[in-house]
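For consistency, the fold was encoded as tokens, which produced the following:
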Amino acid sequence: MPTITYRLVPVTPKSWYDKGMASAVPSVLSASISRSIGSGATTLESGTFSILGGIGDIPSEGWYRLEALMTDGASQMFPIATMRLTPTAFAISGGKATYTLQGRSVLQPLAERKIRTGDYISKGANAASKIGQLIREAMSPAPVNIVGSFTLNEYYVLDPGASYLEAVWGILDKAGWCMQISPDGVITVCSKPTTPRLSIDRNNKSLLAAGLSGSYSWADIPNRLTVLDWYGDTYTVVNNLAESRVSTKTRGWYVDAYDSSPQLKDGETIASYAKRRLSELSVWTEPYSYTRSWIVGNEPRLFDLVRATLPTDGMDGDLRVTSQQIDCGTSLMVDETAELEHKEYTP
């Protein structure tokens, strides 16, 4: 059974290297990291830390890297999270002080600053490169890795009342892209991953702790959509696919939806729009919640895919990671939620 100890090491903002063991803060008593895609302008992660120190020896606010030393015959050191830490509370007992620190994401500086008035992205410009520029303007010290590029098909003005974080997520949402934060605090801007970072099957099932839960959300998915066009005419499309769990054939009844403001794409008819729109309304996600071991060197991040091939255990398919809870203790386990996407209607 491996043993694990933890340390918090200050990070130099300009180089993004840690200052080494000699600069490490006193003993880490506990650390809890929360990560979530959430909704809107999310910073993706936060943390709470408790450390032991001398009375009156208040920890300095700054950027720190939480590292784990795992010993199991050989020893290996690896990062868990890199955050800006701020002392928030203390308690004194037996001549020692315990300090509580709040950890904030490397994206936090983007939430604290407003976009300049008049900033924009030209039609056809490299929007991914613009995101990197905005992150640097917001003075996040974290390195930024841009993977690939995308353009917008329209002139896009950034809301001057928005934060840099809101602006960046707004651009990403238009392209279906995302941001990820690595354990060493590097920000990656990329399309949502399509290749699994982790595969779990019967050969490495021991990565999972006992217990699995999930939920279903197809109850309100329509199987009949009626579209009303600008001339008062209607077009109705019905999902009667035998393989769909929400179709009229499967259910035996109609669940209706109506659209009186159709937004047609170039070259699209009202009929093709109705089919596309019913297809969009027929997508739902099935969340799986489970606990697994930390994967040293290849730990899945938010938005990553986990490929599960455990059909007899009720877990089968490519699941996208949406939240993680990491409580650093005698073992390093991750409480994770990942979602499997289902499409109930394809024209």
The CA atoms of residues 146 and 251 lie 46 Å apart. The longest strand covers residues 74-93.
